[in-house]
Design a protein that fits this description.
Structural class of chain C: mainly alpha
CATH class of chain C: Mainly Alpha
Oligomer: heterotrimer
Number of strands of chain A: 0
Helix content of chain C: over 70%
Largest sheet of chain C: none
Distance between the termini of chain C: 26 Å
CATH superfamily of the largest domain in chain A: MetI-like
CATH architecture of the largest domain in chain A: Orthogonal Bundle
Shape of chain C: globular
Chains: A mainly alpha (279), B alpha+beta (429), C mainly alpha (284)
Number of helices of chain A: 13
CATH architecture of chain C: Orthogonal Bundle
Order of helices and strands of chain A: HHHHHHHHHHHHH
Helix content of chain A: 55-70%
CATH topology of the largest domain in chain A: MetI-like fold
CATH class of the largest domain in chain A: Mainly Alpha
Largest sheet of chain A: none
């Protein structure tokens, strides 16, 4: 009997933790959504009014007048789609090499890889831009997409750690069968790593969706703008911001991301269920 | 290994080659880029202007717009570094001296002197001064937005205070006095008490406004002497200190709780506000529900200890990249577009165009006479290439500390920053 | 093909990318740190003068101290928070999927949005946090305006965003063989005991990874620090200082030198952590 109460008590505690944590996590989102539906003079009121009354839809109309919201989101999706495949797959390739093989200079190269994560990008930003401008590729998506096909350093670092937790004999069976390592990678390692790959894929998508500076530097033509550049259009140099429409646009911009998150979450769970070989 | 060294070598060769070539094309082309920080709705208006100019040019030249919606100066300077500077771009006044010194923008003094479409004399002197560095002119200001005092006539009536004259003449002492009488506790519709202030200061107006009120300045007109620690400048800071000690403004941390300083005036929590003539309070009040509306009055900036009224002027100029300085069409384009800008924003920085203000925003009509006075009194600080560093210190070490602590020893700090400024200027090569 | 050659082939894409895109900018950055380049002007070689100036620069020490203090608290806090959340969500109870998504949500917003919203949340007079504290009868501090409360303000934001690694932890937790837990339970081990002797040791590779990532991101903290600042000079992080030198003062040479020093610091710390790896990180 006491065991049962203990179980229930633990569960209740757990749910209290979930609920308070969720409230804290979601607080900024509540404010964002609430502001999106308020007219200007109700936004910074004292005390805060959480539920706008009446509900004001004009911010959304105004948002679309300021920037073509859907078009910019579409542009961003294009960049993201072109990047993710490369980033995830190539990073996995490289990570596998570092994790499961030994070759000359391996340690030094890996240290170099880590080192490139440590130098602030602000100092290489301009030389990199100069390089791309020599190639005549500024005002295009190429500088944003092409490097993805050579792997992303932080993903490589993560996947290397992940692959190194596989037991030593994982590849053995297939090696004996005469498979080459690329086949092993493709047919065995990748499927085993679904949760990790989904996580990386999510990060890759978020990285593109939220990248302001990179897109700002390399894109000139407003027709090519991404959603972050669009959202930046709601405040000007002197700091004046159209809060209502900005929150409305940000809210719309958040919707695809939430969908991707739910999608990733589903895949993640499925991937977990498939883990049998590793225990 | 060999293959990799080879690739690196090729890149370095290309690097050297590119740095040397291709800058001669600037003097012969007829398509130009114009960079702006305008985005969203402002960009749409900007594009209309450029389209008009392109149409009138009738094939003689074509201008393309480069809009930078965020981090304007990062993108601008990056492009300049890559030798891809836009041909024309906007610069706010504090940066003109730096860009001029670094050789990024063209000296247009002679072109300005010899033109009859837009002359030196047409400009309000205080405004054109902002584009001048070491006596040479580097840009065409396209706007003048000097400070004006907005006040809430309803609250004045309530307190029985006569309005300040729209022609000015009131001193800072009188201003502070009036603000004190307007600072009271009131009750709102729910029976809660709230404080009404006479004034709002939270870092705006800028510290120059107060230093000038004492008859001082930060840097002298010659761009070398530092005046920050002069007797006059310190008296100016004393005026600011008096305001902060008098409790006539909400505290620094309190101001942002309503979003920004102008909201205090809009919500009638502050009776007077020093803003640019461009600030669209009239439009906002018009859009309010009737019981929240109030009547707006205007007055020029109070007169300082030097018997003059100083209106800090926010302005920006169009400048020309050095790369395109030899192009015969360049100055003509710059001039034409600038003249178009005069019809766009409040206020045009040239004399005799005051009616344009009412044309752009009819709600500003009652303010025209006062606006004229402010334009006549418009001035900026003397910007030197080291300005950003000096200004940064002025904010971090002086102004923000004064805002947080009315007993802060501003005199010693001003002297310390003056020393720092002298060292910086001495290092100028 | 020899196994080691195969390994090299696998990493070749990254290596090629390194040569094509990264090597030249890095060499350029090295060169720039020894000049007085202003981005829009010429670059004049000045040798190690920038580095000499850095060691005499008060703001260098000040901002470095602020950043180090932040790192010391933020790194363990975020790791602990993420771990706690992951362990608590490592079950199949009703609604766990929803809660997992909710706890991950902070990581999907851009740094700019986070900063803007927290500016309001932490507002001392009318922000949510102080309002809630007010209900409990506590007068909230001046958060971002009070020098003593700037660090806690940023730590609150760090905790809020800590669940970025949630899914990594969850994946790793799932990898722990169930039999280990089962036999431990049979032997009478309680929850805390199981976490301490099974979960944590099996998670050490992830903890190591998060520690390295934590060091790098704490020292490179930028976006929200740039927008929010805090209490004048007390809220300037190293990267914010660097950024100001580069883009507000047009002292790119000096800023690049600052970046190299930061690099050396981060690199050394990582090497130290890496050295201790063999003592506490579990590997097959």
């Amino acid at each position: 009997m006491r065991e049962h109460y203990k179980e229930v008590f633990k569960k209740v505690l757990l749910y209290i933790f979930y609920l308070t944590g969720s409230a804290f996590m979601l607080l900024p989102f509540f404010w964002m959504i609430s502001t999106a539906f308020k007219p200007d003079n109700q936004i910074f009121t004292v005390p805060i009014r959480w539920i706008p009354s009446p509900v004001y839809f004009k911010n959304f109309v105004k948002a679309f007048e300021v920037i073509p919201v859907v078009k910019y989101m579409f542009n961003t999706v294009i960049i993201a789609v072109l990047k993710i495949g490369g980033e995830v797959f190539v990073s996995a390739l490289v990570a596998y090499g570092f994790a499961r093989f030994n070759f000359k200079f391996k340690n030094i190269l890996f240290i170099i890889l880590l080192a490139t994560m440590m130098l602030p990008y602000e100092v290489t930003m301009i030389p990199t831009f100069i390089m791309w401008s020599w190639l005549g590729l500024t005002d295009s998506y190429v500088p944003l997409i092409l490097p993805a096909y050579f792997g992303a350093v932080s993903f490589i670092f993560f996947l290397r750690m992940y692959f190194s937790t596989f037991p030593k004999g994982t590849e053995e069976a297939m090696v004996i069968d005469g498979a080459n390592y690329f086949q092993i990678f493709y047919k065995l390692i990748l499927p085993l790593s679904k949760p990790a790959l989904v996580t990386i894929g999510l990060w890759a998508f978020l990285g593109t969706w939220n990248d302001l500076l990179g897109q700002l530097i390399y894109i000139n033509d407003p027709a090519k703008y991404t959603i972050q550049l669009g959202l930046a259009s709601f405040s000007n140099l002197t700091g004046e911001t159209l809060w209502g429409p900005l929150m409305a646009a940000s809210f719309i911009a958040l919707i695809p991301v939430i969908f991707i998150l739910l999608f990733a979450q589903k895949y993640f769970v499925e991937g977990i269920k498939m883990m049998g070989i590793k225990g | 290994m060999k293959k990799i060294t080879g690739i690196v070598f090729i890149f370095i060769v290309c690097a050297v080659l590119s740095l040397t070539g291709c800058s001669n094309a600037g003097s012969r082309k007829n398509t130009f880029t114009f960079a702006t920080w305008a985005a969203g709705v402002e960009l749409q208006e900007f594009n209309e202007i450029i389209n008009r100019v392109n149409q009138n040019a009738d094939g003689k030249y074509k201008i393309e717009v480069l809009s930078v919606p965020s981090d304007y100066y990062i993108k601008l300077s990056t492009n300049i570094a890559a030798k891809k500077a836009p041909d024309f771009f906007w610069l706010t006044q504090e940066l003109i001296s730096k860009y001029a010194k670094m050789g990024a923008i063209a000296d247009i003094t002679d072109k300005l002197e010899s033109s009859s479409n837009l002359t030196r004399e047409q400009y309000y002197p205080g405004v054109l001064q902002s584009a001048i560095y070491e006596e040479r002119c580097y840009g065409l200001p396209w706007i003048a937005n000097p400070l004006i005092v907005f006040y809430n006539q309803d609250l004045f009536d309530e307190a029985g205070i006569p309005y300040p004259s729209p022609d000015g003449g009131w001193t800072w002492e009188e201003f502070i006095d009036i603000a004190k009488r307007l600072t009271t506790t009131k009750e709102d519709a729910f029976g809660n008490n709230y404080k009404q202030y006479g004034y709002v200061v939270d870092g705006w107006p800028n510290i120059e406004t107060f230093i000038w009120a004492g008859g001082g300045d930060i840097i002298a007109e010659n761009g070398v002497d530092v005046l920050l620690d002069s007797q006059e400048s310190i008296s100016g800071l004393a005026i600011l200190n008096k305001i902060l000690k008098a409790g006539i403004s909400p505290s620094y941390s309190e101001v942002s709780s309503l979003g920004s300083n102008n909201v205090w005036f809009e919500k009638q929590r502050a009776a007077m506000f020093m803003g640019g003539i461009q600030d669209n309070f009239e439009t906002k009040v018009n859009a309010m529900p009737e019981n929240e509306q109030f009547r707006i009055g205007y007055a020029p900036m109070p007169v300082g200890l030097d018997n003059r009224s100083h209106s800090f002027n926010w302005t920006a100029s169009t400048v020309m990249s050095k790369q395109v300085a030899d192009n015969p069409l360049a100055y003509e384009i710059m001039e034409t577009i600038t003249l178009e800008f005069f019809k766009w924003k409040i206020a045009p920085p040239i004399k005799g165009e005051i009616d344009q203000v009412a044309k752009i925003n009819p709600l500003k009509a009652p303010a025209l006479d006062t606006i004229q006075i402010c334009l006549n009194n418009a001035r900026s600080a003397n910007y030197v290439p080291e300005w950003n560093e000096i200004n940064n210190s002025l904010w971090l070490k002086l102004y923000s500390k004064m805002l947080n602590d009315p007993d802060f020893d501003y005199e010693s700090e001003a002297k310390a920053i003056a020393r720092e400024a002298r060292e910086l200027i001495a290092k100028r090569k | 093909m020899k196994k080691s050659k195969v390994g090299f082939l696998f990493i070749l894409p990254w290596l090629t990318g390194l040569v094509l895109f990264t090597v030249i900018p890095i060499i350029a950055a090295l060169f720039i740190s020894m000049t007085d380049w202003s981005i829009i002007g010429d670059a004049n070689f000045i040798g190690l003068e920038n580095f000499k100036a850095i060691f005499e620069d008060q703001m260098f020490y000040k901002t470095l101290l602020i950043t180090v203090r932040y790192a010391i608290f933020a790194i363990p806090l975020t790791i602990f928070t993420a771990l706690l959340v992951a362990i608590s969500l490592n079950n199949q109870y009703k609604g766990t999927g929803v809660f997992r998504t909710i706890f991950y949500m902070p990581s999907i917003v851009s740094g700019v949005a986070v900063a803007i919203v927290f500016k309001w949340i932490l507002d001392p007079n009318y922000g949510v946090l102080n309002s809630l504290l007010g209900i409990l009868g506590i007068t909230g501090p001046n958060w971002l305006y009070d020098p003593d409360w700037v660090l806690p303000s940023y730590l609150i934001m760090a905790i809020w965003g800590a669940s970025g690694g949630l899914y990594i932890y969850l994946a790793a937790l799932k990898d722990i063989p169930k039999e280990l837990y089962e036999s431990a339970t049979i032997d009478g081990a309680g929850l805390i005991h199981r976490i301490r002797y099974i979960t944590l040791p099996m998670l050490t590779p992830i903890l190591f990874y998060n520690m390295v990532i934590g060091i790098i991101s704490a020292f490179r903290k930028f976006t929200d620090a740039y927008i929010l600042g805090g209490a004048g000079e007390e809220g300037i992080f190293y990267m914010v200082y660097l950024y100001g030198q580069a883009f507000s003062f047009y002292k790119m040479g000096y800023a690049t030198a600052l970046a190299w020093i930061l690099f050396v610091i981060i690199f050394s710390l990582t090497l130290i952590v890496n050295y201790t790896k063999k003592y506490w990180v579990y590997s097959e």
